[in-house]
Write a structure and sequence with these properties.
alpha/beta; 2 domains; two-stranded antiparallel sheet; 41% helix; Cyclopropane-fatty-acyl-phospholipid synthase; cyclopropane-fatty-acyl-phospholipid synthase activity; CFA/CMAS; EC 2.1.1.79
């Protein structure tokens, strides 16, 4: 605990010691042990699945549930050589400690430091998504069920492709798999020579660089200073094909662009948006695209609404992305329908590939912790990064979350 910067990590440095936490700690400890037993997790022996060093874990669990479990890991009060497996089994066992979940927080445009992407994926321009060369696609046509908000619109039929899990995955495959996922997103958006492309909001330069390589012209919008600086470096060698658009707000107003675009691409951002911000995003895209223009959106989604999902992801909201929200896939499609200017046409499910990429990224980061420390990421931050990667792995492995790419078309002219 003495190594924790109290100014930077006040909640981590301060173990809950109020009456309620003390009163409930023993009960919570028993519940945690029972959950571990139910999940088949070993707490003792020569090679335990997790090892608890400090009873402060149970004070934190008593105070803020899942958030406390993550904060305790950040504090170094417990550890695991198989972290993703531990979290997956706890989720599958139905472990659901009472966790206060903050709501009403709006999307603020914050992104993870690009250096963490480099240390995790080997290239600072890469994103989380991965598509490996193996895996068999299966396709079917689905009709989206109507809701009270969409009952006056025609039923939506979409082509759904599910990519089977990759058969062989090696460490050296990571960079190529990340590049393949980026190319797949551009394919969905029909990005080719001469296309005008909007990267909204840019998370890393990955999509912009890939679109430029296809001889497209790109407007990349971002509010994060590091992302903007990285994009400006690309613009210097793009020979006028890239316009970097700094914004004071996370998302622009609809109709704010000087020109309209053939395609809009977005990656790793929808899960960072609360429902209202995501609805605003679709309004912006609707107004930005030419009739027939394409949207390609890659995001994590929840398989179904779950209190445990909301609880366990509270750590991400607290320390990484304030408005993090795993939307249900059909909720996203209904939001598109509600805009009346966007029509989803196809969905690709590739969670088995995404989760393998997360595993490789986590393992690679664990092998570069010394470099991360030299760059100023302290032990608490490094454990945070490892935990959030493992948590996303666990959610997919426990079949509570999935990774998808949605393709959609703008089907009417802007008014």
């Amino acid at each position: 605990m003495s190594t924790i910067d109290e100014d930077r990590w006040p909640a981590i440095a301060d173990v809950p010691d109020h009456a309620r936490a003390r009163r409930r700690a023993r009960k919570v400890e028993s519940e945690f042990a029972l959950a571990c037993e139910k999940a088949g997790l070993r707490l003792e022996g020569e090679d335990p699945d997790l090892r608890v060093f400090e009873e402060a874990l149970f004070y934190r669990l008593a105070d803020v549930g899942w958030l406390g479990l993550g904060e305790s890991f950040m504090a170094g009060e417990w550890t695991s050589p198989r972290l993703a497996m531990v979290l997956e089994r706890l989720l599958r066992a139905g472990y659901n400690p009472k966790t206060p979940v903050r709501t009403g927080v709006r999307y603020d445009g914050s992104v993870a430091p690009l250096e963490l992407h480099r240390l995790s994926g080997g290239d600072s321009t890469n994103t989380y998504a991965t598509l490996f060369s193996s895996g068999v696609p299966t396709m079917q046509r689905e009709t989206l069920s109507q809701t009270a908000r969409t009952k006056h619109t025609p039923p939506l039929s979409i082509e759904v492709t599910t990519l089977s899990d990759p058969t062989v995955v090696e460490r050296d495959d990571l960079t190529e798999a990340q590049s393949r996922a980026t190319q797949a997103l551009l394919d969905v958006a029909n990005v080719g020579t001469g296309a005008y492309v909007l990267d909204l909001p840019a998370q890393t330069p990955a999509l912009t660089l890939a679109a430029l390589a296809r001889h497209a012209t790109v407007d990349a919008l971002a509010s994060d200073p590091d992302v903007l600086a990285s994009l400006e470096q690309v613009a210097q060698i793009a020979d006028g094909a890239l316009e970097v658009v700094p914004t004071l707000t996370p998302l622009p107003d609809p109709g704010a662009f000087r020109r309209r675009f053939d395609a809009c691409v977005s990656v790793d951002s929808a899960e960072s948006m609360d429902p209202r911000s995501l609805q605003h995003f679709f309004k912006v895209v609707e107004q930005a695209l030419v009739p027939g223009g394409r949207l390609a959106l890659q995001t994590l989604v929840a398989h179904e609404p779950s209190k445990s999902v909301a609880g366990c992801t509270e750590l991400i909201r607290a320390y990484v992305t304030p408005a993090f929200h795993l939307h249900d896939r059909d909720d996203i499609l209904h939001l598109m329908l509600k805009s009346q200017g966007m029509k989803a046409t196809d969905v690709l499910h590739f969670g088995g590939h995404y989760v393998e990429g997360l595993r490789l990224e986590r393992e690679r980061f664990e092998g570069h912790e010394r470099e991360a420390a030299a760059l100023g990421f302290d032990a608490v931050y490094r454990r945070l990064w490892i935990y959030q990667l493992a948590l996303k792995e666990a959610l997919i492995l426990a079949e509570l979350a999935d990774a998808i790419i949605i393709g959609a078309s703008a089907h009417r002219a802007r008014l």
